[in-house]
Amino acid sequence: MATYKIALIKGDGIGPEIIDEAVKVLDAVAACSGIEFNYTEALMGGIAYDVHGDPLPQETITTAMNSDAVLFGAIGGEKWDNLPREKRPESGLLRFRKELGVFANLRPAMVFDELINASSLKPEIIKGVDLMVVRELIGGIYFGEPKGRDENKGWNTMVYTRSEITRIAHVAFKSAMERDKRVCSIDKANVLDVSQLWREEVEEVAKEYPEVQLTHMYVDNAAMQLIRDPKQFDVMLTGNIFGDILSDEASMLSGSIGLLPSASVGNKVGVYEPIHGSAPDIAGQGIANPIATISSASMMLRYAFNEIEAADKIDCAIAQALKEGYRTKDISMFDAKEVCSTSEMGSIIANYTAKCKH
Predict the structure, then answer these.
(1) 263 and 240 within one domain
(2) Is-contact 293 25, C-beta < 8 A?
């Protein structure tokens, strides 16, 4: 029996609720797949600041590094917004990514047929959408130096080195080789020197993947095209800030940010998390959608553990739950048979996972 060590970082807001449902589904798939999970909880975000005075305690980094993967919920909330920047939950998350070296953020965006009417776009525009945003995660303007502010001015610096561009480009091209063999690199090379270097280096990497078609697009046009004709994209490769914005935009193709997962990979330990935030306004109400977190657990099985059959079972179960008309509040207006609480949706998907013959 294969055994995997998973660090659980529940975080703030709805984080504990959605992680609990993902664990429920993981336990269900373990029981029917001959695998075992050992969980260790660790603190990060506002709750870590409340307990330790630090949004990222050293013991959390140690726990993560001693695990096979990290399953993470969400952090932040108004309670901590007035803290000094280095003490805010978001600063802890940025440091966490840097410490683990997870430089590649994989954000799939797909549209479930059962939720074709959930998007604000016309069904004929989004039916069949299945794209992957590959976002560089530990470089760019969020980490560049110098940065700072004074009374009258604030400044940040967008910096990328050739090696940083090379390694994220390889991730995108390898992903494309397993998909439709198309990469669209997103930049702002008409005005930014850093984007000119980005484009130059991506073209060099592309020479190693002659089967993959490479195109380039300016980020402002990409934002428009993602709404106008999302099916033109297979793999979208981009830097940190552009990828942050575009992947959230892509999430709405599906109709709810509560549906889409992500994987942050690079070194030994990857981090798997929903792309949405901590939603403190609905925390504790049992209405958060756990599907994005459950899908993130599926990505963990697929990318961290190579447990493809187990991952397929979870994906099959999610699709089955939606097909049968089970909906959380955020998607309850679309062909709902039954509106479910967070816990009920987790249990339904767990039950389908145990029964799935995939």
Answers:
(1) no
(2) no
| Structure confidence by residue, pLDDT tens digits, 29-52 | 999 999 999 999 999 999 999 999
Q: Which of 20, 27, 68, 248 is catalytic?
A: 248
Q: Which of 142, 209, 326, 352 is catalytic?
A: 142
- Residues of the domain holding 272: 1-110+256-358
Q: What is the pTM of this model?
A: 0.92
- One domain, residues 272 and 246: no
Is 244 a residue of the active site? yes
- Total number of domains in the chain: 2
143 within domain boundaries:
yes
Is 188 in the active site?
Answer: yes
Q: Which one of the listed residues 50, 220, 229, 281 is annotated catalytic?
A: 220
Q: Is 234 a catalytic residue?
A: no
Q: Is 220 a catalytic residue?
A: yes
Q: Which of 244, 313, 326, 352 is catalytic?
A: 244
- DSSP class per residue in 123-146: HHHHTT-EEEEEEE-SSGGGT-SS
Q: Are residues 235 and 305 in the same domain?
A: no
CB-based contacts of 18, cutoff 8 Å, min separation 6: 73, 74, 274, 288, 289, 290, 292, 293, 342
Handedness of CA 3, 72, 261, 179 (dihedral sign): negative
